[in-house]
Write a structure and sequence with these properties.
Distance between the termini: 20 Å
Strand content: 5-15%
Structural class: alpha/beta
CATH architecture: 3-Layer(aba) Sandwich
Number of domains: 1
Number of helices: 9
Oligomer: single chain
Shape: globular
CATH superfamily: P-loop containing nucleotide triphosphate hydrolases
Helix content: 55-70%
CATH class: Alpha Beta
Radius of gyration: 16 Å
CATH topology: Rossmann fold
Number of strands: 5
Order of helices and strands: EHEHHHEHEHHHEH
Strand order of the largest sheet: 2-3-1-4-5
């Protein structure tokens, strides 16, 4: 167990559900963030590949096949151990139940999963407007990404969340919900 006094909050959700916005709010509260996707991006670059959805998805999947479905949680735990002791840390981007199992084993009972949910229609509209380096502007590719992430077990992760936030309304409402949860936890 890393620390008995450390609270680990984990944001999860389908792509474009609002995880990045929740992370911004946590950052504004000076809560350290470990974005699992950054670890995948680092590995993608290390392998000499361009950062795009196809390559990032390939690396994420390939590493899971080679090293186990919990490879990204192992790398996240290594990163947490390398940090100075904190009261609260946010993990962004859990994708499968095996990651949750390892986090609970290594991080203890103060591990809380927060699912951010939004409809497919809303998420796809966001995807087309966000423009992040690993996003696609093709609806078919967005559907492929959803299918890939659900194939990793993301649906089960969402079902097992301790807290769920619906992000289909106004952005101010969502931000308020995230702030309230962070303040309570």
């Amino acid at each position: 167990m890393l620390s008995e006094n450390m609270k680990i909050l984990a944001f999860t959700g389908m792509p474009w559900s609002g995880k990045s916005e929740a992370v911004k709010i946590a950052k504004s509260k000076k809560v350290p963030i470990i974005r699992m996707g950054d670890l995948v991006w680092d590995e993608t670059k290390k392998q000499g590949l361009d950062l795009n959805d196809k390559n990032v998805g390939f690396v994420a999947n390939n590493m899971r096949e080679k090293h186990g479905k919990d490879i990204w949680s192992k790398k996240t735990i290594e990163k947490i151990k390398s940090m100075r002791k904190k009261d609260t840390i946010i993990i962004d981007g859990i994708r499968n139940p095996e990651e949750i199992d390892l986090f609970k084993k290594e991080l203890g009972s103060d591990f809380v999963i927060i699912a951010i949910k939004a409809s497919d229609e809303i998420r796809r509209k966001r995807a087309l407007s966000r423009g992040r380096i690993d996003d696609s502007d093709n609806i078919k590719e967005l559907e492929i990404r959803d299918k890939r992430e659900l194939g990793w077990g993301l649906g089960k992760v969402l079902e097992s969340a301790d807290i769920a936030i619906n992000n289909e309304g106004k952005i101010e409402e969502f931000r308020g919900q995230v702030r309230d949860i962070l303040d309570k936890l």
